[in-house]
Amino acid sequence: MSLDVHNTKELLMVLNETAIFLIKTFKNGIQVKDDFDAIFAKLTEDQEFKALIMKAYEGIGTIPAEINDASFIEKIELATLEIKALRAIVNAIMTK
């Protein structure tokens, strides 16, 4: 039976969203109190982000098996997901 790469995708989405958030937060340098407050608020108040984290965490144990069992098409799907995320990350870096 072939495994799906669903949990891998969820983890990648969390990592990408976290990267974009941190880039935007630290864009103008690090202000310890303000940045800590923003990170804390993101982790405690952003319900959508919390749900993403929980979904990724629940399936994290299956990721090595998913990657091991991934078909060529699933690997392309993962690469495509990351290419789209890379665009968003570059936009976050370039946006003032």
Q: What does this molecule look like?
A:
- The protein has 96 residues and is mostly helical.
- The chain has one domain (6-94).
- Helices cover 80% and strands 0% of the residues.
- It contains five helices and no strands.
- The protein has helices at residues 6-26, 32-45, 47-58, 63-69, 72-94.
- The longest helix has 23 residues, at 72-94.
- The radius of gyration is 16 Å and the shape is flat.
- The protein starts with 5 loop residues before the first helix and ends with a helix.
As residue ranges, the low-confidence spans are: none
In angstroms, what is the radius of gyration?
16 Å
Strand content: under 5%
Largest sheet: none
What is the number of beta strands? 0
Distance between the termini: 48 Å
Please bin the fraction of helical residues.
Answer: over 70%
Shape: flat
Q: Return the average pLDDT rounded to an integer.
A: 91
Structural class, by secondary structure, is mainly alpha
The total of helices stands at 5
Order of helices and strands: HHHHH
Q: Tally the structural domains.
A: 1
